[in-house]
């Protein structure tokens, strides 16, 4: 969208000095460009190191996505990114100083053959998703005269004297990898499912709890089977945080992605792939996840042995190669392995071939929407501090220990008209849709009674340029819970409800005996 906002010269190709070294200034030392460049790299590198290790990455302010479908009566599908600030996965601050806009149809027209090859020559319409990403770049400016050889080119006598911080906004077919963001969300959701029981001395043993935390992203760990006494929560959760910091963050965040890729390898009874060919392919794995060649098919009977050897390679070769030098104390490999793009959101729309046989946005079904649910967001410390300040009474209310216990029993992003895109907790699902009404349920649901109750949060996505729908609870019934979805006090029609995505979160509250 805009590779260099201030000067349209693209990005520079400056050499990257080692950010772990700084200049040892001694009397009589001859200093030149290399020394100043090295010192800047050290100071700048430590700033980025601190940001990415202590803060994380994400949107700091602004950078909202706005989808515009009509301008002065003309169909002009465009997406606007508002001004704002972000912090990339490498710890680089990026500032977008004014709103940026792109015409989606023009973007599609520039890639017409590429899209046709992607979907097939015979396809005339399809649903499509593009991802909006933000990255840092720099640009050279302010040329000044420099000494040169007598026979040098005139252009060589002018060199840029300044480097400007810029930004790069892109539309991409695939989202950037954000293993740590996904792992943080997953681990936090896992921890919230641990059962907190008000009864003293009813905790799982520390040894079993630690083992479960270490295996949180595998089928060997079920948080709903872990019961912790309310009095033990501070100690156990502090242990979970320590294990996350000391063991699980980093390479472990990518391990789940590696396993999913590994288990996707094709296999059949008549597979012919040798172990050597299989492990050669495993060694080619990168954080960008290279794809399996179509002719590398594993024999089903060899699957367990091959997978075990591949997992051993992760520990011995792959993880040390890609992740052991992530921090600043060994950052020479970091710039090459970090996919330094920040995800802002996704644009969903339908495409159709026009009369000229070129792709364009199709508004017939009004399926255009923006999805920012996977955008990483960084709230600043002042906001977190404000959450700790007591209310107007001046007293922080603390619930008695022996009152109730609660946990998440259902969680997920649900849609009736599209395949499930993300995992859900508790098999949450939509059971029926009528004009203005959506009914949900989950495994283990029963109507609230004297023993238990539910606290439910439901949000609905926008569809196109229509206003945000209002979602309100109606009732519990024997098969689920009913919500009303309205806009301007009128029920949203079923056809639109089927295109919506609903974010559902259900807490069960178990009442004391």
Structural class: alpha+beta
Multimeric organization? single chain
What portion of residues is helical? 25-40%
- The total domain count is 4
Strand share of the residues?
25-35%
Low-confidence stretches: 5-14, 325-337, 392-401
The rounded distance between the terminal residues' Cα atoms is: 61 Å
How would you describe what is shown here?
Residues about 5-15, about 325-335 and about 390-400 have low confidence and may be disordered. The chain is α+β, with helices and mostly antiparallel strands. Helices cover about 25% and strands about 30% of the residues. The protein has 4 domains: about 35-175 and about 340-370, no CATH class; about 185-245, no CATH class; about 250-325, no CATH class; about 405-510, no CATH class. The radius of gyration is 27 Å and the shape is globular. The strands form 7 sheets. Strands 7, 8, 13, 14 and 15 form a 5-stranded antiparallel β-sheet that branches. Strands 17, 18, 20, 21 and 22 form a 5-stranded antiparallel β-sheet that branches. Strands 1-4-5 form a 3-stranded antiparallel β-sheet. α4 crosses α7, α5 runs parallel beside α6 and α7 (about 250-265) runs antiparallel to α9 (about 305-325). It contains 12 helices and 23 strands.
